[in-house]
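To whoever is on call:

I kicked off a structure prediction for a single chain this morning and the downstream step that reads the tokens threw a length-mismatch warning. I double-checked the sequence; it's 171 residues and nothing unusual in it as far as I can see. Pasting both halves so you can look.
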Amino acid sequence: MTPAGTTSITLTDVHAAAKLNKTGRVASIGVSNFDKQLLGEFWGFGSVRPHLVQNFAEPGRLDKVVREWSSEHGAIYMPYAHQRNMKFLAPSMKESIQQMSLKYNVSAHVIISRFFYQTGAAIVPRSSQSAHLKENIHDVTKFTLTAAEMESMGWDSASVQKTNAGTKTEL
């Protein structure tokens, strides 16, 4: 469900999602572009719960409020466009990512995927080029970013416990 430009969830929306879930036409419900208020409204109806929350995030802009809500409510958080918008990152962020890329001998895209993976977010490695797809799947497991590197990309290590409570997975 994506509330294109909406500011509230209607009971009709929730009933439609619940009906699809109850009849087995969908196994779970995911939402996209929901802020904490919309998530709270959706949750408040009680008949169906989002299993996945997909929102925009990138290094330096981590959507921490929604991530915390997802963790507290047992929903999976997945950033989208976390690689696509690299050219729009602050120059200092791009430089930091480039230095890590050289250090670990992987692409900048892999660095960003690894970063989000280490934060406990779900990532979907994808590419239209098979060589890049292989890199996005395999290279992300070959290294671990240091706490300092994570912090340089906007991750506050003090928030790891709260955001990833019970969901942290090690490779």
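Update from on-call: the warning came from a stale cache, not from the record. Cleared it. Sanity check on the structure: The helical segments are 11-22, 36-45, 64-72, 91-104, 108-118, 130-138, 147-152, 160-163.
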